[in-house]
Design brief:
InterPro entries: ACC_Biotin_Carboxylase, Acetyl_CoA_COase_biotin_COase, ATP-grasp, BC-like_N, Biotin_carboxylation_dom, Biotin_COase_C, CPAse_ATP-bd, PreATP-grasp_dom_sf. This protein is α+β, with helices and mostly antiparallel strands. It has 3 domains: 99 residues, Rossmann fold (3-Layer(aba) Sandwich); 61 residues, 2-Layer Sandwich (Dna Ligase, domain 1); 241 residues, D-amino Acid Aminotransferase, Chain A, domain 1 (2-Layer Sandwich), CATH 3.30.470. Strands 13-12-9-10-11-14-21-19 form an 8-stranded antiparallel β-sheet. A 5-stranded parallel β-sheet has the order 3-2-1-4-5, sandwiched between helices. It has a 3-stranded antiparallel β-sheet with strand order 7-6-8, with helices on one face. α4 packs antiparallel against α5, α7 packs across α8 and α12 runs antiparallel to α13. It is globular, with a radius of gyration of 22 Å.
Length: 471
């Protein structure tokens, strides 16, 4: 087993990795930029080092991070998600330095990182695909292709991810207008402005299959997650297992994901994403060659620690569980608690957390890094915490999540908590009547009033009493 792991990330995922390492008896090294100097993960790691310059570049400095790992005696690096997690050059730099990259090999990352190449591999294996194109050279070529495919179509960045570089077009006018915007966004986010177009399904479910593979050709899947509740193609609420899939379709999608992983020589934890229509036809979307933000709910319904398994696989251990041993038990929901204002087009909210009280109780889990006094910086993703509820039935887990959200107090910044409370109360959600269009269609009916609650009143009264006592 590794003796020391450097974590090339920040926030809640860094803290999650630290906890996994501690349970395995592994020392941890955190890195941080100036805005994270007092962050919880920095305090919890065995060692922590400032990386510069600026609030972002330090987390993206491949050779600086690898050199630091060598200097502090780390024998492995865990990239978390985002930043360098799906960068094949980072995996290669680790290998060249004699440091283990806790993730898949660089070749697998490279093959699945470009969406057009991933489509070709899926097509070769006979995995269903939506009609689409290879990378296109310009607007006129895209217009001609869209006429053949049929509107609506989606513009997709070749090197895309996280909803960036995606645009939905219902006619030629919008296609011509949106392509330059999508190209510019992709260039800024990925350094690659290439794009292709794909047929757009109007109301699909976004279903992803969790896979786990070792270095000896053993591959299993751990069921699916439904990530359909999104805003601007970025996930907000995830559910495991899906309310839509049958056992037969689950098995088919799981086998498709395993075939894809085997074809590219995949050797760690990863996720294969699909779109599924109302008739349970499924279509390959992409593969994420890293741990997912929503890995928590798979852990809750399987009892399998995905982060620890990433470490064990990277250390050369074979999978300790067979496919027939994977059992899905109950339901789990994850709500991403973001510092955003749903009443103002999900505008990011920054500032100091003036009060923090997390919920608890049976079946509740929180993966987060926020405390009272935490300063929410403007430089990073708006995720503050992941609230997870587990229950024996769908009805039970929805009620439990509603109760936990109602207990959750974060003051000083706007959050998505009030919106999620309304979603848990929504009849369509409770019946499982949702798709990727859910939030777009339902948001006007989910609007809530920002009334002061008893906690706010107590804070005000307490401050008034203290002030009066000093007079």
């Amino acid at each position: 087993m590794f003796k020391k792991v450097l974590i090339a990330n920040r926030g809640e995922i860094a803290l999650r990795i630290i906890r996994a390492c501690k349970e395995l008896g592994i020392r941890t090294v955190a890195i941080y930029c100036e805005p994270d100097a007092t962050a919880r993960y920095v305090k919890k790691a065995d060692e922590a080092y400032l990386v510069t310059p600026g609030p972002l570049r330090g987390y993206l400095n491949i050779y600086g991070i690898v050199e630091l790992a060598k200097n502090v005696g780390a024998d492995a690096i865990h990239p978390g998600y985002g930043f360098l997690a799906e960068n094949p050059q980072f995996a290669e730099a680790c290998a060249q330095a004699g440091i283990t990259f806790i993730g898949p090999n660089a070749n697998a990352i490279r093959k699945m990182g470009l969406k057009d190449q991933a489509r070709k591999i899926a097509e070769k294996l006979g995995i269903p695909l939506l009609p689409g194109t290879p990378p296109l050279k310009g607007i006129d070529e895209a217009v001609a292709a869209a006429k053949e495919i049929g509107y609506p179509v989606m513009i997709k960045a070749v090197a895309g991810g996280g909803g960036r570089g995606l645009r939905i077009c219902y006619d030629e006018e919008s296609l011509r207008r949106q392509i330059p915007i999508a190209m510019s966004e992709a260039k800024k986010a990925f350094g690659d402005e290439r794009f292709f177009i794909e047929k757009y399904l109007e109301r699909p479910h976004h279903i992803e299959i969790q896979i786990m593979a070792d270095r000896y050709g053993n591959i299993i899947h751990l069921g699916e997650r439904d990530c359909s509740i999104q805003r601007r193609h970025q996930k907000l609420i995830e559910i495991a297992p899906s309310l839509l899939l049958t056992e037969k379709v689950r098995a088919q999608m799981g086998e498709a994901a395993k075939r894809l992983a085997y074809e590219v020589g995949y050797d760690n934890v990863g996720t294969v994403e699909f779109l599924v229509d109302e008739n349970l036809n499924y279509y390959f979307l992409e593969m994420n060659t890293r741990i997912q933000v929503e890995h928590t709910i798979t852990e809750e319904i399987t009892g399998i620690d995905l982060v620890q398994n990433m470490i064990k696989i990277a250390c050369g251990e074979p999978l300790s569980i067979k496919q027939y041993e994977v059992m899905l038990s109950g339901y789990a929901i994850q709500c991403r608690i973001n510092a955003e204002d749903p009443l103002n087009d999900f505008l990011p909210s920054t500032g100091v957390v003036t009060a923090y009280y997390s919920p608890g109780g049976f079946g509740i889990r929180i993966d987060g890094h926020v405390t009272e006094g935490y300063h929410v910086p403007p430089y990073y993703d708006s995720l503050l915490a992941k609230l997870v509820a587990r229950g024996r039935t769908w009805e039970e887990v929805v009620r439990r999540m509603h109760r936990a959200l109602s207990e959750y107090i974060i003051r000083g910044v706007k959050t998505t908590i009030p919106l999620y409370i309304k979603i848990m109360e929504d009849e369509d959600f409770r019946k499982g009547n949702f798709s990727t269009k859910y939030l777009e269609e339902k948001l006007p009916s989910l609007i809530y009033s920002e009334e002061k609650d008893p906690f706010d009143l107590a804070v005000v009264l307490s401050a008034a009493i203290v002030a009066h006592s000093r007079v």
